[in-house]
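User: hey, got a sec? need Efflux RND transporter periplasmic adaptor subunit folded
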Amino acid sequence: MLKLTYFIPVALVAAVTISSCYKDQEKEQTAPTEKKAINLTKVTTYTTVMEPVTQSIRLNGQIEYNPNQVVRYASLVNGLITKTNFSLGDKVSKGQVLAEIRSSELTELTSQKRTLESRLTVAKRTQALAESMFKDRIGSEKELIEAQSEVDVIGAEIDKIQENLMLYNASSEKGVFQIKAPVSGYVVESNISTGTQISGSDSDLFTISDLSDVWITTNVYAVDLPFVKKGMKAVIKSKAYPDETFEGVISEISQVFDPQERVLKARIRMPNKDLKLKPGLAIEAVVRKDASGEAVGVPVKALIFYNNENYLLIQKPDLSLEPRKVIIHVKDNDRVFFKEGIVAGEKVVTDNQLLLFSEVIESGK
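Assistant: Yep! Here you go:
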């Protein structure tokens, strides 16, 4: 019996000790992890102000050449392109030789000129003889006038051929016509290459445009017609340059609807200093119409949509954050306006507001 009474307390102590250790271990495993505190002094905010209410209208369109700065070159002669000195997109200078044409017309003109020059030599000798005979009263005045007339006629024909040769930029040394750039600019279209057979009836051989100034043609739908006006500023956006915008002004609005697209065409004339605005590139032009009155304006990115309602996260003077339900007055492209629910001078969180909003909501439950 003595052995039995001694063994039971020892077993109980061991059991209590094991149970205590297990409970301590369980507490350690179930203990909540401490959340990292948010540094509210580094929250990005926007201080609201009263401003004119605006609303954006988006106009789709594309970039086009300024037709006043486009030259299309068509050949005046028939022949074979023997050499080209340019590629599509090259910048060329006025007078630069772009191509050479070998043509039978050059041979014909050169032959005619030589024949006429020979005839002119003979006519001048006849004229000199007629003048001498007239002075000696051997020849008549009529013969003198006829000799002078022959010289003048032949000389005029030679001048005409010479003008044609200059017009066609004939090179007597190479025996070819040279095609020279009529203006400075960029070759934006080309229909020729070495070996191309051309004729005077062909369409344009190439097109040169000065891209320093382009036109943007946009579509104005009937619903937007009352708001789009000549002289309005427009912000041009393109998927080709997602991080850039270009500013222009509506210079003209057509007075006739396009019969196929059922839209009016608005033209925006744009400087193209860096040549980023490529003709044919699709764009979006954003114009802003002024609505009535003023309201508190906030960047649209600050808006939080939660449980089918709109919220703003307001930072109070003590740096605490307040989720506030608001009703939108007007929503613009990048601005949202409120007539009530928020006053000028309050600070609205504009960065990481969704994460902060969720933390504030969770902490308030």
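Quick note: The CA atoms of residues 326 and 341 lie 6 Å apart. Let me know if you need anything else on Efflux RND transporter periplasmic adaptor subunit.
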